[in-house]
TrEMBL record:
Domain CusB-like barrel-sandwich hybrid: 136-253
Family affiliation: Belongs to the membrane fusion protein (MFP) (TC 8.A.1) family.
Organism: Pandoraea aquatica
CusB-like beta-barrel domain: residues covered: 257-334
UniProt protein name: Efflux transporter periplasmic adaptor subunit
Signal sequence interval, chain numbering: 1-30
Length: 420
């Protein structure tokens, strides 16, 4: 009797152990973590399709080597990590999908493609310069010596008619003494006229000749004055220096008008023409705007900077500006043209092509190759590839571009006609 009881107990224990082993094996086989793998393997091997509600795995890959695909899970031959599954609902013909919560966590922003009237233009740099048409020279018309120099340093301000230099002219003494001798001897008018003509030929001013007849005292000094108000941009003599006829003593430039000379890159040279609008801001104060139109396009490319110069005239009545100020300018056509615009930060430039990430109607994110134009402030003109009111990713593109590259979306785009 006791023997039968022991046999029954042993049989019961064995049965319980067998049932536990079967339950454990079944649980491992049908666990959620293995359901997708089992279904995916069966699908890849052609043995069937995954049951309803299960995610279909397309392949496994190493995220560090996304182009290498594997038909079953396991350890990566490249890295010390497990292969990751790529599900069918993650990659489709419309690009990649990113969970909305993840989009928010990553700070991904979207912007609409908008249309606006844009005047085709480009950005340049330039500087203010003296208006050479507002410059005059102070020259000597006789041989003499600098007796006194009133303007003694370059860039000195002078007013119109202010003395610049006093000149001693010894050659003037003899013709004046001859004229006074004729006057004292009461010679006829013909001889006096000839004496006056000789003095004029020696560049003796008429005012000095008239003063000579009135006072009877010869004058051998002449004061050269500034022909206009401005600054002395050149000073070529010093006190006591000898000067000759035609020699330039000084150059005086006015400040009531200035030139703005902008440097245009050679690539933009053919687009420049007189009459283009220029909107410039001072580098020292970007709130100060200078608006004008190109008056002259100077011929010739600077061989050093490979730039073309364009010039416009500025009114500087209050002398608010000074020559040499650096400016940033935008040159544009007078007539605006309707263009599509996207934020400049939405454009991914690879060096070979420009791409934007577009959000489709079903929420998928798809990279689209575009042809871009000029930058307009914080926006970029899109010539081809987009339509109005499409939504593009304005931030976080590098994350999406990385995800898309892992899913081989960008290679598919290139294979379907994108530019390599």
């Amino acid at each position: 009797m006791k023997k039968k009881t022991v046999i029954y107990a042993a049989t019961a224990v064995f049965t319980a152990c067998a049932l536990l082993a079967l339950g454990y094996a079944g649980g491992r086989h049908f666990a959620p973590g293995n359901a997708d793998a089992t279904a995916a393997v069966a699908t890849v091997n052609g043995e069937g399709s995954p049951a309803d509600g299960q995610r279909r795995v397309l392949y496994w890959h190493d995220p560090m080597m996304p182009n290498q695909h594997f038909d079953k899970p396991g350890k990566s031959p490249f890295m010390d990590m497990q292969l990751m599954p790529v599900y069918a609902d993650e990659v489709g013909a419309d690009g990649v999908r990113i969970d909305p919560n993840l989009q928010q966590n990553l700070g991904i922003r979207f912007a609409k493609v908008r249309r606006a009237d844009v005047a085709a233009g480009f950005d340049v740099v330039g500087s203010t310069q003296f208006d050479e048409s507002q410059a005059d020279v102070v020259q000597s018309r006789v041989t003499g010596f600098i007796d006194r120099l009133y303007a003694n340093a370059p860039m000195q301000h002078v007013s119109q008619g202010a003395p610049v230099a006093s000149l001693f002219v010894p050659d003037w003494l003899a013709p004046q003494e001859e004229y006074l001798a004729l006057v004292r001897s009461q010679m006829g008018g013909a001889l006096l006229d000839a004496a006056r003509a000789r003095m004029r030929a020696l560049s003796i001013p008429d005012a000095l000749i008239a003063n000579l007849a009135r006072t009877g005292q010869p004058q051998t000094h002449v004061v050269l004055s500034a022909p206009r108000a401005g600054v002395v941009t050149e000073l070529n003599v010093r006190n006591g220096a000898m000067v000759s006829p035609g020699q330039t003593l000084a150059k005086v430039a006015g400040l009531s008008k200035l030139w703005l000379v902008v440097e245009i890159p050679e690539a933009m040279a053919l687009r420049v023409r007189p009459g283009m609008k220029v909107d410039a801001t001072l580098a020292a104060d970007d709130t100060q705007h200078i608006v004008g139109r190109v008056r002259d396009v100077l011929p010739g490319i600077n061989p050093g900077s490979r730039t073309l110069q364009a010039r416009l005239e500025l009114d500087n009545t209050g002398e608010r500006l000074t020559p040499g100020m650096l400016v940033r300018a935008h040159m544009s056509d007078a007539k605006a043209v309707s263009q599509l615009l996207v934020p400049s930060e939405a454009v991914i430039t690879t060096g070979k092509q420009s791409v934007v990430i577009v959000r489709n109607a079903d929420g998928g994110l798809q990279p689209v190759a575009v042809t871009t134009g000029n930058d307009v402030g914080a926006d970029t003109v899109v010539l081809q590839g987009l339509t109005q009111d499409q939504e593009v990713v304005a931030s976080g593109q590098f994350l999406i571009d990385s995800e898309a590259s892992l899913k081989s979306v960008l290679p598919k785009l290139n294979a379907s006609g994108g530019t390599q």
